[in-house]
Amino acid sequence: EPVLQALDLVKRYRRPGGGRTAALDGVSFALRRGSTLGIVGESGSGKSTAADVVLGFTEPDAGEVLLDGLAWSTAPERERRARRNRIQSISQDPLGSFDPRADVRSILSEALEAIGVPRCERRDRAVELLERVDLGAEHLARNPLELSGGGQRQRVAISRALATDPEVLVCDEAVSALDVSIQAQVLDLLAELQRSTGISLLFISHDLGVIRHVADEVLVMRRGRVVEAGRTQAVFEHP
Ligand code: ADP
Ligand code: ADP
């Protein structure tokens, strides 16, 4: 059974001038446990909307997201809250998701507090989380603005996402803003985390080269629809 499934998702937005845009027009996919599913497509093809529906940030007009075979939309609120810890995300701009006044220690402590880790254990757990992204304890006292723009900020965002021990990590253009060499480091880190934890990745990017490198399976989107899907090698063999 796939860890995550999207079944026939539909999401329409009203256009300013009237009429409606189908950001998602019947999108289905399955993420196999421990694997990476890449979603690729031009800007405006519906990738981020798909990610937001999976994360529960956007309610679809129709369709369903299943986690471990269980429907998300019909689950009771309590269950929905618990599930949010099981699907985490990182985005293009980690800085935008951090409280600018918080240091790394409090960013990680807050995530640990949210899942009920007692105060006295939070520092050690925060250090462990940093170790998993190859950052030392000396980074605890830093403000996100004092971290290197590409690599270190995204590493802290990844470590915060790992705090709840999620089964799925949604990466929405997570390396798109990074220099190529730093991009490669972050991709290597994600691959290493996948090997060690078995985490499943939903990896969204407009960059074919990146998708080709990371994805086991690929979904190509255009205007809210899936126009191609399959094993990465097979999809990219097409002329
Ligand atoms: P992508 O991530 O592939 O760039 P998006 O999912 O962001 O695509 O957008 C898909 C379509 O839905 C686009 O036409 C976009 O303008 C529209 N759209 C996305 N979010 C909204 C919104 N909150 N309000 C109105 N239209 C939106
Ligand atoms: P609705 O208001 O129809 O429930 P929303 O798109 O506001 O649709 O939210 C869908 C679900 O996702 C809700 O349960 C909401 O609490 C949750 N949600 C929305 N935004 C966030 C967010 N930023 N972080 C966590 N959960 C969110």
TrEMBL record:
Domain ABC transporter: 4-239
Family per similarity comment: Belongs to the ABC transporter superfamily.
Protein name per its UniProtKB record: ABC transporter ATP-binding protein
Species assigned in the record: Leucobacter muris
